[in-house]
Specification:
The chain is mainly α. It is built from three helices and no strands. The mean pLDDT is 81.
């Protein structure tokens, strides 16, 4: 048995929905359903596509850490005072 509606069945179904929810709520419901579908599709795209913004950020953070450690090492070397040996 195929799942489908004939035009007459759709008209009856639409009339029942209109009576239950009213004419004012139908556009609001349609808009919210459309937004929900759009957000769902956007979420599915984000899951399927690898996040490319994280990779450069981690490389940048690694470079920053290396620079900071080299600066700290240079500061430590400059603060070491050598005492003359007699």
């Amino acid at each position: 048995m195929p799942i489908g509606f004939h035009p007459f069945e759709l008209i009856i179904l639409l009339a029942i929905v209109l009576l239950i929810f009213g004419a004012k709520r139908l556009p609001e419901m349609g808009a919210s359903i459309g937004k929900s579908i759009k957000e769902f599709q956007k979420g599915m795209k984000e899951i399927n596509e690898p996040d490319q913004t994280d990779a450069p950020a981690t490389k940048f953070e690694t470079i920053e850490r290396e620079i900071a450690s080299k600066r700290n090492a240079a500061e430590v070397k400059s603060t070491i005072v050598e005492t003359p040996v007699d």
